[in-house]
Amino acid sequence: MKTANKFDFKDIHIGELICKRVEECDIDLSRISNFFKCTDEEIQQMFRDRDMKAETIMKWSKLLGYDFFRIYSQHLILYAPQANTRLSAANEKETQLPKFRKNIYTIGIINFLIELIETGEKTKLQVVNEYNIPKTTLYKWLDKYGKNKGI
């Protein structure tokens, strides 16, 4: 079973992550500069930037074949407080924006949470409270994927 990389979704430094992906893909800096129509130093600055415009992240995602936005989505799944569904349904206004289900947990997130429990880093109750995971969901994950069952 391959264990998921430990990643701190609380502390996202997008420039460092992009730099790691560039190294993994072994892409020449001059190719990147041509793609972005900027200098090598400007590319190096992007690697040092903790935050970037969405348009720039989109370009990096296309160039490197990796969805960097998903990192932010995982942060929201783990750390954004869940709205009270009765209150939000009553106050919900019509929107032109697309609607998404909030609680879609990826394999990586499930592995991450199970690993926290199995290593003793957090208790089940801590995971339930800190990450707003329903108890029943957590216990189903543990039963299905915990202790050498792997995903």
From TrEMBL:
InterPro entries with a match to the protein in the record: Homeodomain-like_sf
Protein name (database record): Transposase
Organism whose genome encodes this protein: Chryseobacterium daecheongense
Organism ancestry: Bacteria, Pseudomonadati, Bacteroidota, Flavobacteriia, Flavobacteriales
